[in-house]
């Protein structure tokens, strides 16, 4: 097997190792949940990657295979939240552990939103720079379209809805529906954050991997702060 969905061999091994670690760390009740959420992200990301393949190839925008750097950029923050969740739950900090679930979901929602926005946004509309709104070429970092933003919101919804399937919260100071609604918005903001960081990529500051990571971090911060404020 050379690839799994969009991951090359090394990336597949790393993703599998991280997934198994999530299962073990959060075992028995939450481990499989965290693993399946990441698998869901990978599956729907592959679908949008393959969407409009002919058009993307014609425009030089098709990127079929992702490497280990993509796995780190998209999966490191969710993994950190899983570790934090397990530690907090072990020490009886249920409320904080629930916020780690929210951070995990919103991080995944953020990278999913960005994936949908970037992979589907190039299929329709004329992109404009997020700062200044000047017209830019399709595929330019920091460029956005209304269609792409709408697809980003849809991607965030598909990722965030997974929280409704989470195991029962033993000490639930934050209800699932609140996490879901806030995570959808936070995830959408993730793709906005990524586009903002992409603007600086074009100026030689950062790269797509750092943008993915910090966009996910921004989504998580927004979600956690909002839930604390609501609580």
Proportion of residues in β-strands: under 5%
Helix content: 55-70%
- Biggest β-sheet strands, sense, barrel: 2 strands, antiparallel
Number of domains: 1
SSE pattern: EEHHHHHEEHHH
Instruction: List unreliable stretches of 5+ residues.
Output: none
The N- to C-terminal Cα distance equals 47 Å
Q: Which outline best applies?
A: globular
How confident is the prediction overall: mean pLDDT? 91
- How many DSSP helices? 8
- Major sheet strand order: 1-2
Report the structural category.
Answer: mainly alpha
Radius of gyration: 17 Å
Number of strands: 4
Topology:
Layout: E1 3-4, E2 7-8, H1 9-25, H2 31-50, H3 53-59, H4 68-90, H5 94-121, E3 128-129, E4 143-144, H6 146-160, H7 176-201, H8 208-230
Antiparallel strand pairs: 1-2, 3-4
Helix pairs in contact: 1-2, 1-4, 2-5, 4-5, 4-8, 5-6, 5-7, 5-8, 6-7, 7-8
